[in-house]
Amino acid sequence: MHARDDGEDPAPSTLQRTPSGYDRVFATTRWVAVAILPFLAIAAFLLFAFPTRTGELFAWPISPPLSAYLLASAYVGGIWFFLRVATARRWHHVKHGFPAVVVFAGALLLATLTHLDRFSSNLSFWTWIVLYATTPFVVAGLAVAQRREDPGTADAPDCRIPGPIRGALVAIGASAFAFGAAVFVAPGAATEFWAWQLTPLTAQVTGAVLSLTGVVNVALAWDTRWSAFRVLFQAQCLSLAAIVVSLIARRDDLLWERALTPLFVSLVGVAFVLYVAFTVWCERRTRMAG
C-alpha cells in the first residue's frame, strides 16, 4: 500500500474506520505539538536570557549557567521537532522522535520526583511538574495510536542511508545513551568528573539530555529512509549548534583541570560538524534522486 498525501486529517470520529497505513498525522497529534511549543519556547528564552535568575523565574535555581544553557539547547531542538510535528504531512517524517521525547520527559519526571526539595515554590515549578507528569504518557499514547500509520514507503524523491553510515550513527547513539544513562543513574559520581560543576539534580538533567541522540539514532538500525530522519537530524543540528555557542559563551564555567572537559568540548564540536555534513549529504542525494 502506498502512502496517501492529501494533507488532510480525518475527523476524529472516522479514525477507527479509516484503513491504517495512510501515513497520516492525526489532528490530535498536531494539537498536542502546538500545545507543547509555547512552553518549550518560554523555557528556552528564560534559560538563555536569565541563567542567573533561574531560582526566581524558572523551576529551580540552576548553577552554573552552563547547565541552564545545556537544558535550553535541548529545548531548541524540541521546538523545531514539535513545530514540524504540527505541520508534518506524513507520520513517518516525525515518528522516530516520539520515543526520544518519552525517554527524555520521563527521565526529567524521575529527576524531579527524586529532588523535589531543590525546586522553587513558584508558578514555573507547578507548570514544570504538570508538564512532565503528563507529557511522557501523552506522547507515548499518541505514538501507540499512530503506530500503524507508517506504510514503510519512502518519499519521492528520497534516499536510502547506507548500512555502514547507519551502523556508525547507531554506535554513536548507543554510546551517548549509555553514558547519559550512567550519569543519570550515578549523579553523585558524575559531579566529580564532569566538565563543569554539577549538582545531583543537574547531573540527572544532563544525563537526560545526552540520552536524546541515542534514542533517535537506534531507529537507524531498521529504517533506511532519510525522509524518516530529516526532521530529527535538523533538530539535533540545532541543539548541537546551541551547545557549541553555549560552551563558547560560558567558557568560564568549564573546569579545564578535569580530563573530561577537553574531550567533551571536542566531541561536541566534532558531532556538530559530522551531523551537519551528514544532513547536507543526504539532502544532496535526495535532490539528485529527484
Share of β-strand residues: under 5%
Report the major sheet. none
User: Per the principal axes of the C-alpha atoms, what is the gross shape?
Assistant: globular
SSE order in H/E notation? HHHHHHHHHH
Which residue ranges are poorly predicted, with pLDDT under 50 across at least 5 consecutive positions?
Answer: 1-19
Number of strands: 0
As a percent range, the share of helical residues equals 55-70%
Which whole number gives the mean pLDDT? Answer: 92
Rounded Rg: 19 Å
Q: Provide a count of the helices.
A: 10
User: Between the first and last Cα atoms, what is the distance in angstroms?
Assistant: 21 Å
Structural class: mainly alpha
Number of domains: 1
Describe what this molecule looks like in 3D:
Keywords: Membrane, Transmembrane, Transmembrane helix. The chain crosses the membrane at residues 31-50, 66-85, 97-113, 125-145, 165-189, 201-222, 229-249, 261-282. The structure is a single chain. The protein is an all-alpha fold and 290 residues long. The chain has one domain. It contains ten helices and no strands. Helix 3 packs parallel to helix 8. The radius of gyration is 19 Å and the shape is globular. The protein starts with 26 loop residues before the first helix and ends with a helix.
Top keywords for this entry?
single chain; transmembrane; mainly alpha; 290 residues
Set out the fold topology.
Blueprint lengths: L26 H23 L4 H4 L7 H23 L9 H18 L8 H23 L17 H23 L1 H7 L6 H19 L11 H20 L10 H30 L1
Helix pairs in contact: 1-3, 3-8, 3-9, 4-5, 4-8, 6-7, 6-8, 7-8, 9-10
